[in-house]
Amino acid sequence: MSENGHVPSHIAIIMDGNGRWARRRGLLRILGHKEGVESVREITRECAKKNLKQLTLYAFSQENWKRPKREINLLMKLLKEFLIKERKEIEENNIRLTAIGRIDGLPEDIQRELAISIEESKYNTGMVLCLALNYGGRSEIVDAAKDIVKRVKAGKMSLEEITEETFKNFLYTSEMPDPDLLIRTGGEMRVSNFLLWEISYTEIWVTPICWPEFRKEHLEEAIKDYAHRERRFGGLRE
């Protein structure tokens, strides 16, 4: 259970089902992505109102590059529009924006708008909104291992100093708390290479509702379910 007994401090969401939502309605997949932006807006606003410390959204995975070029271009266009249009919303809700992933692999205009949004919100003191962009959990662990090897080779770190705690310091999420609750929409029962290290003891809640339909009442349902769970982290109940 969360510290206040009701709300998790950090929620991570795998936003799945945009394409299926559109297909069931005879619409183009991109229209599902566009509708999904409305869900992002509502859920972000609601989480900020609940005083969550962090909301992490799986916005674009490394595997998403395998999609048709036209769809990727449209996704990048939507992302750029979101970064620009939501700056006012982010400011009004005192949200601090950040991002994880191989950001340097994104188009330059996306990198530029992302940097502007991060810079403009860096002094906000409310919830952290973290976008996972060009992100892969395995790549995150590999990148961390490479950084550690470099330090060991340079004599700046010994093998004995490599522990779970020090390893975390080299992850993209080094300054973030691990998620308390992972929500997956669209009904699939997998984590899809998302936050593999960080979700070791995260509570998981899956809903068949596709992301474009996911609204605050579904968020409430997930949080209510979470509040009744007993988190022991491998130990026994006292």
Describe the structure.
The protein has a 6-stranded parallel sheet with strand order 3-4-2-1-5-6, sandwiched between helices. It has helices spanning 18-24, 29-49, 69-85, 87-92, 108-121, 137-153, 164-168, 216-227, and strands at residues 10-14, 54-61, 96-100, 128-135, 181-184, 203-206. The model has no long low-confidence stretch (mean pLDDT 94). The protein starts with 9 loop residues before the first strand and ends in an 11-residue tail after the last helix. 42% of the residues lie in helices and 14% in strands. The chain has one domain (10-137, 177-227): Decaprenyl diphosphate synthase-like (Undecaprenyl pyrophosphate synthetase), CATH 3.40.1180.10. It is globular. The longest helix has 21 residues, at 29-49. The protein is of the alpha/beta class and 238 residues long.
Number of domains: 1
Class of secondary structure makeup: alpha/beta
The helix count comes to: 8
Output mean pLDDT: 94
CATH fold annotation: Undecaprenyl pyrophosphate synthetase
Overall strand count? 6
Terminus-to-terminus distance: 14 Å
Identify the strand order in the major beta sheet: 3-4-2-1-5-6
Looking at the structure, what is the overall shape?
A: globular
CATH class: Alpha Beta
What's the gyration radius in Å?
A: 18 Å
Poorly predicted runs are none
Q: Please give the CATH architecture.
A: 3-Layer(aba) Sandwich
Largest sheet: 6 strands, parallel
Give the helix proportion (percent range). Answer: 40-55%
Order of helices and strands: EHHEHHEHEHHEEH
The fourth-level CATH homologous superfamily is Decaprenyl diphosphate synthase-like
Strand content: 5-15%
